[in-house]
C-alpha cells in the first residue's frame, strides 16, 4: 500500500481545540501522534500511563514517549500505577483493572488541562478483535468500539473518547511509520498468546483468514457497518412508534403490535438507556418473554435491579 494514509477525521477535526492523546509508545499510538502533528494539530497533550506490568521495558517506554513529546514540543503527562496489585485487591482481571486506571488517568489529565477530548489509536484490527470477542461472549448483535464515546469513572468524572484510526489496518500504520523513518517501541508481551486479545490477534483471526481465504477484519468491519445501519433504521422507526410512555416505561400494548425485530430493538434500547450492564442474548430473550401473555412478570437484571411488568407497562425497578 502507499505510504500515504487517508483519514477523513484528520481533515475535519478542529485544530484550534486542545486534545489529549493517549500514547503508549507502540506503533499505533506513535503513528496517531505523528499523523496529528503532520496534519497541523499543535494543541496536543501527550498522556502516558505506566501500568508497572513489564518492569524495565515499561520504564523505557515511558522515557521514549517523554522524549518524543519533548522533540515535538508538546506537554507530557505520565503516571505509574500498580495495576496487577489493584486487580488482585478488586477481584478484577488485569485487563479490566488496566482499563479502569487508564480512564481515571485521562480524567485527571482532563481536569489538569481543561480538556475532555481524548484521542486513542484503536485501529481496524483492534475493532475486529473487539467484535469477535463480544460475539464469543454472547453479545446481542455486532458490538464494536465507537468512533466517539463518553466514558465515566466512579467519582463522576467523564471524558469523550475519539478513535480516528478505526478504518486503518495495523500494518498500514507500521508501513507509514517505516516509510518516514519514525521509531516506536515493541511490546514483547503482545507476541505472547496469553491474554484473550492476544490469542484472538495471534491465533484466531489468522486462522479465520486462512479458512475464509480473505481478511476477516475487513469482513467484520463491513458487517459492523451494516449492523449499525440496521440499528439506525430501527431507532428511526421506534421514535415514531411511541413505545416509551411519558413516565419512561415501555408500553406493552404498543410493543406487541410491532414486528419481532423492532420489539427486540425497543427492549435493547430501553435497557441500554438505563445503563443495564452485561446485555447478552440470553438476557434479551428473557426480557422479550415478558411481552407474551402469561410470560414472566419479573426478571432479574445485573446490578441488583429487575425488569417488571405491571398494568400494561414494563419498567425497571430496584
Word description of this protein:
The structure is a single chain. With 318 residues, this protein is α/β, with parallel strands linked by helices. Helix content is 50%, strand content 14%. Helix 6 packs across helix 9 (216-241). The termini are far apart. 28% of the residues are buried. The mean pLDDT is 88.
Key features?
318 residues, alpha/beta, four-stranded antiparallel β-sheet
Mean pLDDT: 88
Task: Give the uncertain stretches in residue-range form.
Answer: none
- Output the radius of gyration: 22 Å
Portion in helices: 40-55%
Structural class designation: alpha/beta
What fraction of the residues are assigned to beta strands by DSSP? 5-15%
Task: Estimate the global geometry from the Cα principal axes.
Answer: globular
Strand order of the largest sheet: 3-2-1-4-6-5
The helix/strand series, from N terminus to C terminus, equals HEHEHEHHEHEEHHHEHHHEEE
Calculate the terminal CA-CA distance, rounded to whole Å. 55 Å
* Continuous helix count: 12
State the total count of DSSP E strands. Answer: 10
What is the makeup of the main sheet?
6 strands, mixed
Amino acid at each position: 500500500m502507499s505510504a500515504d494514509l487517508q483519514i477523513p477525521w484528520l481533515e475535519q477535526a478542529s485544530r484550534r481545540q486542545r486534545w489529549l492523546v493517549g500514547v503508549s509508545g507502540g506503533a499505533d499510538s506513535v503513528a496517531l501522534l505523528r499523523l496529528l502533528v503532520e496534519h497541523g494539530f499543535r494543541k496536543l497533550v501527550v498522556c502516558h500511563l505506566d501500568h508497572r506490568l513489564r518492569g524495565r521495558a515499561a520504564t523505557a517506554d515511558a522515557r521514549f514517549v517523554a522524549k518524543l513529546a519533548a522533540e515535538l514540543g508538546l506537554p507530557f503527562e505520565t503516571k505509574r500505577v500498580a495495576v496487577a496489585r489493584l486487580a488482585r485487591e478488586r477481584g478484577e482481571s488485569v485487563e479490566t483493572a488496566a482499563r479502569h486506571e487508564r480512564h481515571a488517568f485521562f480524567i485527571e489529565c482532563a481536569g489538569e488541562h481543561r480538556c475532555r477530548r481524548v484521542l486513542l489509536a484503536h485501529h481496524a484490527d483492534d475493532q475486529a478483535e473487539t467484535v469477535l470477542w463480544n460475539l464469543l461472549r454472547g453479545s446481542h448483535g455486532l458490538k464494536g468500539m465507537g468512533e466517539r464515546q463518553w466514558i465515566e469513572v466512579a467519582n463522576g468524572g467523564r471524558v469523550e473518547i475519539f478513535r480516528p484510526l478505526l478504518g486503518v489496518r495495523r500494518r498500514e500504520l507500521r508501513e507509514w511509520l517505516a516509510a518516514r523513518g519514525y521509531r516506536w517501541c515493541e511490546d514483547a508481551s503482545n507476541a505472547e498468546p496469553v491474554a484473550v486479545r492476544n490469542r484472538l490477534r495471534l491465533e484466531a483471526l489468522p486462522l479465520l483468514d486462512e479458512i475464509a481465504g480473505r481478511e476477516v477484519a475487513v469482513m467484520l468491519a463491513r458487517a459492523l457497518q451494516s449492523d449499525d445501519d440496521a440499528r439506525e433504521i430501527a431507532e428511526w422507526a421506534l421514535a415514531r412508534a411511541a413505545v416509551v410512555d411519558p413516565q419512561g416505561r415501555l408500553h406493552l400494548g404498543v410493543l406487541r403490535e410491532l414486528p419481532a425485530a423492532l420489539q427486540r430493538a425497543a427492549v435493547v434500547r430501553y435497557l441500554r438507556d438505563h445503563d443495564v450492564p452485561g446485555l447478552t442474548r440470553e438476557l434479551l430473550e428473557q426480557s422479550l418473554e415478558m411481552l407474551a401473555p402469561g410470560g414472566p412478570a419479573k426478571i432479574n437484571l445485573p446490578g441488583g435491579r429487575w425488569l417488571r411488568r405491571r398494568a400494561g407497562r414494563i419498567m425497571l425497578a430496584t
